[in-house]
Amino acid sequence: MSTVALDAFGADRGYAEVLAGARLAAADGIRIRLFGPPSELAEAGEGIEVCAAEEWITNEDEPVAAVRGRPSASVVLAARDVAEGSSDALVSAGSTGATMTASLFALKRLQGVQRPALAAVLPLPEKQVLLLDCGANVEVRAQHLIQFAYLGSSFVEAVLGVARPRVALLSVGEEQSKGTAEVVEAGQALASASGINFAGNAEGRDLPTGEFDVVVTDGFTGNIALKLLEGTAKVVGGAVRDAARSNPLSLAGGLLMRPALGKLRRQLAPDTTGGAILLGLRGVSVVAHGSSSAEGIANAVRLADRAVRERTVERTGEALERAGATRQGLRRPDGRDTQTR
Amino acid sequence: MSTVALDAFGADRGYAEVLAGARLAAADGIRIRLFGPPSELAEAGEGIEVCAAEEWITNEDEPVAAVRGRPSASVVLAARDVAEGSSDALVSAGSTGATMTASLFALKRLQGVQRPALAAVLPLPEKQVLLLDCGANVEVRAQHLIQFAYLGSSFVEAVLGVARPRVALLSVGEEQSKGTAEVVEAGQALASASGINFAGNAEGRDLPTGEFDVVVTDGFTGNIALKLLEGTAKVVGGAVRDAARSNPLSLAGGLLMRPALGKLRRQLAPDTTGGAILLGLRGVSVVAHGSSSAEGIANAVRLADRAVRERTVERTGEALERAGATRQGLRRPDGRDTQTR
């Protein structure tokens, strides 16, 4: 088992929920270093070490300025803890921008990676689909999409255990000519690329079917798609509940179906998949949902632990190297990496 | 009641399904002029006039070249029928690109409108949300987003009867600073614009809740969002069905809930809302789902009929004029309209 640096600040439900999540994960044997105010985290419990942090970065702060200007903010301390080797992975349910920035600054990018991407396993019944980028890069170029394809494919192979994952580009039609200029260019390059099982374009309707294992898009579209999928599942689930309450016969039916529907509800809950992982760094960093329950926090810690134990970072780096992905037009013509914004 | 020019070609389920849909709509008193091969459309029935068309445009054809080069293709004839006043509106379940192009060429844009947008009422339980653009413009500038906001707001007010509809821009965060450069610029302009009830940014999760009446985005994101919402509802619906079959108690429960769940399934079916309408033209044009059932075709015809009877085109033009939307930076600085691609 690994050691996870967990940010106690910034979760919508407060310290108590993060602490409860830490206890659930610690009960699995994962060691936790919990960064937050000791006064709020007393008697944390076995396997949890409280590391004092009194400052934090909010959703309203501009991430880069805040991470630079507040070296003792909880997420900055936790990221440094990973960089210095005291922990193996970072987990935070606070500001996504701050977590990404602190991770990037402390953990650095993998060789040849221009833009780390936020990848999430979609909360779907009986399927595992990795969507990236879910919000790290609002605007991208074709070469970034190509690199996301390699990052996602490596992760799914290493952590989800899928051999030769089917990788698709999210677009507005199946034909390779459909989509923005960046999508069309990336599709042409991936169609003849080595070391990746590229399956063409996926449309919006293909995302929840599980036909593709990895779906690649820009961070604007991906963020909207992830939240829309979560929101739609919630609205439809609520409508099923309303339908059950619409008359006495339905109510009886709903009671009989409750165990089966409860299982489905858990599969569709955003908390189940444990949040999004930042791919392309020299370390493991997981962004948990801000609204995470204790179980959601625990699942984010478990995802980070699994990524460490499966040597995701090393295997992703090896896969990128093997595929020559760091050489296939993924650097600027002058050979320098571009700066991540 | 109005007269609708209906394209008999291009629907996934063939002529018979389109004809069956035409009969359903004709039974409501809507007059149909059906453009297709007379041999396949014999004994069409009362209220349906078959207009001979033997050629058509497929999904594989490049729309602009095909519409220009095939003046006797069914969708081109049907669009011209509307332009010449023999019909009041166009409906096609064939190639979306061909339908949009034929409509644009024959019906022309409303004064001051640069880019017509494809708008769809989302298939949601108990809610009406209009999403645009759903695919007419893969890439847009800020001024196009602003104009889509006015087009959508006018349509929802005129046809759906919502007073002062709440209009939002789809983005990656609620804060006005979040999103692409185009979204941020459009948000700033709309925040101080007149004649529109602008409510800020909507996130993906807000789309299915009904919190906003009109959600504005580019055609790439909108197309993916619409299809993803339809796909997610279908997958979740299927999972509820599977849950009902997972054990005998659930099966009994599922039978008791069947009437209530059937109603929900109809609400979530893409066919229910009748397809997407092209806003910003001097005439009514509706793009039905390629996979439409007869009921889906009939609903698309009913949507076109309602748009004609509610004088959508005139009222949208008046609203744009009243709001000064055609003057608020919605033309190029040189005063010429930009070309729709």
Explain what you see.
- The structure is a homodimer of 341-residue chains.
- Chain A is α/β, with parallel strands linked by helices and 341 residues long.
- In chain A, 43% of the residues lie in helices and 15% in strands.
- The first copy, chain A, contains 10 helices and 11 strands.
- Chain A has an 11-stranded mixed sheet with strand order 3-2-1-4-11-10-5-6-9-7-8, with helices on both faces.
- In chain A, β10 and β11 form a beta hairpin.
- The longest helix of chain A is centred in the last third of the chain and has 26 residues.
- The C terminus of chain A is likely disordered.
- The interface between A and B is large, with 63 and 63 residues.
Q: Short summary of the structure?
A:
Two copies of one chain form a homodimer. The first copy, chain A, is of the alpha/beta class and 341 residues long.
Features:
disordered C terminus; 11-stranded mixed β-sheet; homodimer; globular; alpha/beta; 341 residues
Sequence of strands across the biggest β-sheet of chain A: 3-2-1-4-11-10-5-6-9-7-8
The percent of residues in helical segments of chain A reads 40-55%
What's the order of the H and E elements of chain A?
EHEEHHEHEEHEHEEHHEEHH
The profile of the biggest β sheet of chain A is: 11 strands, mixed
Percent of residues in beta strands of chain A: 5-15%
User: Which structural class do the helices and strands of chain A define?
Assistant: alpha/beta
The radius of gyration computed from the alpha-carbon positions of chain A, rounded to a whole number of angstroms, is 20 Å
Mean pLDDT of chain A: 90
Q: Return residue spans of chain A where pLDDT drops below 50 for at least 5 consecutive residues.
A: 327-341
Most extensive interface: pair and counts? A-B, 63 and 63 residues
Report the principal-axis shape of chain A. globular
Subunit arrangement of the protein = homodimer
Question: How far is the N terminus from the C terminus of chain A?
Answer: 34 Å
The count of strands of chain A amounts to: 11
Give the count of helical stretches of chain A.
10
